[in-house]
Design brief:
Layout lengths: L27 E7 L3 H15 L3 E3 L8 E6 L4 H23 L5 E6 H6 L1 H6 L5 E3 L7 H9 L5 E3 L7 H4 L10 E5 L1 E2 L10 H4 L4 E2 L2 H13 L4 E5 L18 H9 L6 E5 L8 H9 L6 E3 L7 H6 L6 H14 L4 E8 L6 H14 L3 E6 L17 H25 L4 E9 L5 E5 L5 E5 L8 E9 L3 E9 L1
Parallel strand pairs: 1-2, 1-3, 3-4, 4-5, 5-6, 7-10, 10-11, 12-13, 13-14, 17-19
Antiparallel strand pairs: 8-9, 15-16, 15-18, 16-17, 18-19
Helix pairs in contact: 9-10, 13-14
Bound molecules: S-adenosyl-L-homocysteine, iron/sulfur cluster and FE3-S4 cluster.
The site of FE3-S4 cluster (F3S) has 15 residues, from helix 1 and helix 7.
């Protein structure tokens, strides 16, 4: 899996982003490491932009950072524990730098900050600031307080003001594709999940501020936006007329922006897959034929215990309706194995569903008990070895479906949005409408353009092809 594909919820830490060479040697440096979902990637970008306004430049080297931020994820135990090993490393850096007379401020942001608060400074006293996911706009003010001698600040309230409005306008780096958080939080309370606790209740940003942000992105060369939300298809932001707008309505507003050619969204809940959104996949040319729709488990008994409020049959019917509207749509999903009480038979139902749908892509996870969630206290916790074995079997079926989907595009000519240069000289990398990575030999001036590519071969994780024309 490549880094762009870290879906809502791969726990692999992303590489910290590299900064431009620094023109003013006296500038302060900030190191940001991002864990978890795209929502965190977006938040890190916004924090970085807010800090630029404060005179910081980004660095990918933690040992030269005046400010180090870990933007954390709490979704599974492994993700949360990684933060503490990184904090150990940062503590050593802080000590070494102090010997040279340099200060290092350590900040823990994101979902571990929100979930653990004070506990973080108890466990890792080198931490200067714990900053919950709703308080990023307060970062400059909190840093000033630290510089004035305050210490171990913990800011994890869900403030009344809208953090998006309070952050400075976006001046992002030039890129062909960008994330745009449109909705945050979740009221679904699936029994395994920490998101409702770390991100709070569902909140949708108003259409006007999203259209404005998208316009600004397009002016900087962005051709594609991915609308982000923990429950993005539950979007219900205020429209220009003051009435609540659906996600399909928001897509129509964004599709009217000249120069914005591709719109994607994630992550969706099956319960909120409304008729108008399904119809948008038929009618709205700019809406890409790709849908990430987690189903979590195939067994109705397990789905009920998860509080998912849909059955396997509901999910299959939904898929049929979506495919009627857009027959070529690429489907992807999230699946959990080893939820408390899951039997071999329950697990077989998951495998059956995966085979029946034929996903282009899927993320699968071993159930990880999370503190404070109902499922962590349920009877019938499944042994680690059983979870591992189920995950392996499931991943083999997922991989087979993934290759089948990719092979089926060989011979077709697909419009590819080129995003960057490839590893090999003279090669560019882009995305097909189905979010597949595509490599082709092409001049760098095609970056940021959508070009027809005839797909000639399918590898394990990407396609390769030759240029056939431009748009
Ligand atoms: N809002 C999305 C996804 C949020 S969390 C949804 O409704 O599906 C992303 C994925 O992480 C989930 O889809 C789930 O598959 C996985 N996940 C969440 N909590 C987990 C846990 N406790 N153990 C293992 N996987 C989990
Ligand atoms: Fe978590 Fe469920 Fe909400 Fe998704 S819908 S974020 S899995 S509680
Ligand atoms: Fe992780 Fe928080 Fe995203 S828990 S998955 S970073 S919403």
């Amino acid at each position: 899996m490549d880094d762009f594909e870290t879906s809502l919820l791969d726990e692999t830490p992303l590489q910290s982003r590299h900064s431009e060479p620094d023109a003013t040697p006296a500038a302060k440096r900030v190191f940001i490491k991002t864990f978890g979902c795209q929502m965190n990637v977006y938040d890190s970008e916004r924090m970085s932009e807010a800090l630029q306004a404060e005179g910081y430049v980004e660095t990918s080297d933690a040992s030269e950072a005046d400010l180090a931020i870990l933007n954390t994820c709490h979704i599974r135990e492994k993700a949360a524990e990684k933060v503490y090993s990184d904090l150990g490393r940062l503590r050593d850096i802080k000590r070494d730098r102090a010997k040279g007379g340099k200060d290092t401020l350590i900040t823990v942001a994101g979902c571990v900050a929100q979930a653990e608060g004070e506990e973080i400074v108890r466990r890792a006293p080198a931490v200067d600031l714990v900053l919950g996911s709703q308080s990023y706009h307060r970062l400059p003010e909190l840093l000033a307080r630290l510089r004035n001698g305050e210490s171990a600040l913990v800011e994890t309230a869900f403030p009344d003001e809208d953090k998006f409005q309070a952050l400075p306008d976006r001046e992002p780096a030039k890129a062909a594709s960008a994330f745009l958080t449109v909705q945050e939080g979740c009221d679904k309370f699936c029994t395994f999940c920490v998101v409702p606790y770390t991100r709070g209740m569902e909140y949708s940003r108003p259409v006007s501020s999203l259209v404005e942000e998208a316009r600004r992105l397009v002016a900087r060369g962005v051709r594609e936006v991915t609308l982000l939300g923990q429950n993005v298809n539950g979007y219900h932001g205020d429209g220009p007329d003051g009435r609540a707008t659906t996600l399909a309505g928001l897509v129509r507003h964004l599709a009217a922006i000249d120069g914005l050619d591709r719109i994607r969204y994630m992550t969706s809940h099956p319960r909120d897959m409304s008729d108008d959104l399904i119809a948008a996949h038929r009618d709205e040319e700019k809406l890409m034929p790709y849908l990430h729709l987690p189903f979590q488990a195939g067994s109705d008994r397990v789905l009920a215990a998860m509080n998912r409020k849909h059955t396997g049959a509901d999910y299959m019917r939904l898929i049929e309706r979506i495919r009627e509207a857009r027959p070529d749509i690429a489907l992807s999903t999230d699946i959990i194995v080893g939820f408390p009480g899951e039997t071999d038979e329950d697990f077989e139902a998951t495998l059956t569903l995966v085979k029946e749908v034929g996903f282009a892509h899927a993320y699968s996870f071993k159930y990880s008990p999370r503190p404070g969630t109902p499922a962590s206290k349920m009877e019938g916790q499944v042994a680690e070895g059983v979870k591992r074995e189920r995950l392996e079997r499931l991943q083999a079926v997922i991989d087979e479906g993934h290759s089948r989907f990719n092979r089926a595009t060989v011979g077709r000519t697909l419009p590819v949005l080129f995003e960057k240069t490839g590893r090999r000289d003279g090669q560019l990398v882009g995305r097909s409408p189905y979010l597949q990575l595509v490599h082709a030999d092409a001049q760098p001036d095609l970056i940021g353009r959508i070009i027809d590519v005839e797909i000639q071969a399918a590898g394990a994780n990407s396609l390769s092809g030759v240029i056939r024309g431009s748009k």
